[in-house]
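call fold(seq) -> tokens
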Amino acid sequence: MCNTASGEAHQWAQAHFFVAGKFGAWLRAQIVGDMAVELDRIREIAERVAGSSGLEVVEVELRGSGPARMLRVFLDRPGAVAGDVLAGVTHGDCAEFSREFGTILDVEDAVPGGSYTLEVSSPGLDRKLTKSADFERFVGSRVKLMTRQPLSNNRFFEGRLESFRDGRLTLDVSVASKKSRKKMGAASDAGQKVEIEFANVEKANLVPEI
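ret:
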């Protein structure tokens, strides 16, 4: 596991304004849309830099406002086995990525709006699963997830990922923790398996097994 952080500064004129009513709602939506575009651009740069070193970008986050903004990038090494720290991203990987990525962000002015802190790290044992390739890679691992639409009046599931094929995953929920079984109710009965469409997964992550 690795973690590096560095401060980056940019100058940008700050606007002060008051909005109300429908125009205010439109402006807020516009700001959110602009942030999404910026984040997409930042992720594209991150994937370009990571790919040149044989790494993959798990997630990119831009949180906070003003000088307290934090840009976080989580990296992984394709093919690394869950929980095998020797096969994953090293501190050196993070440091090298941080230097190159930070330089490109500055040159391309990809993060407008003043100063921010860049933090680069490995995804950790509770790695998020966001792409179909993630579910294919971690078949056999324990995961917990939240669905977009409820299944049998339940949106939370935890279990062992038995398979992932044709855009559909199968969970053996009988191995879930006592707390999770209580949240899942009848779905956690012994031997119970749940099939979930990948398109219905809102968020998911690995459950560490130590």
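The first strand starts at residue 3 and ends at 8.
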